[in-house]
Amino acid sequence: MNGSPTSTRSGLALAGFIVITFCAPALSAFIGMPGPWYEALQKPTWNPPAWVFGPAWTLLYTLMAVAAWLVWKRVGFGKPLTLYFMQLVLNAAWTPIFFGAHQLGAALIVIVAMWVAILLTLLSFRRVNATAGWLFVPYLAWVSFATCLNFTLWRLNAA
Questions:
Q1: pLDDT of 99-152, one tens digit each?
Q2: Is 87 in contact with 117 (CB distance < 8 Å)?
Q3: How far apart, in Å, are the Cα atoms of 125 and each of 86, 118, 159?
Q4: Cα distance between residue 151 and residue 4, in whole Å
């Protein structure tokens, strides 16, 4: 026998969390991605090169999914995962607002709300599983940086 029903269920749940988590960027990618508009923006000297974003987000989405799975294994669905899905919705909303609608100010509001939701999720996850909380720290750090970048782009490119 290849595995117990419990380990099979757990593996399927992990796969499900990965798929659901990666749906956020996949869905928003169809609506708006960097292009000529973004290239034309005035940017700060500390703006990362474009190639950094793909690997960074791939790692972050993977860590997020594993963290959610660890919480699910411990307590199932409840407040911690409700917070997780809330921040994921905000995450998915940011790209089309920023890159699709070119609304830097509105995107800033969304990313600040997302930052708060990520912090609440991290704290909620940490109460359930310390590792899950730690897995969210790089995500919070990256979104902190992204919030500063969004703010700076908004200020540099105000009409």
A1: 889 999 999 999 999 999 999 999 999 999 999 999 999 999 999 999 999 999
A2: yes
A3: 14, 10, 41
A4: 50
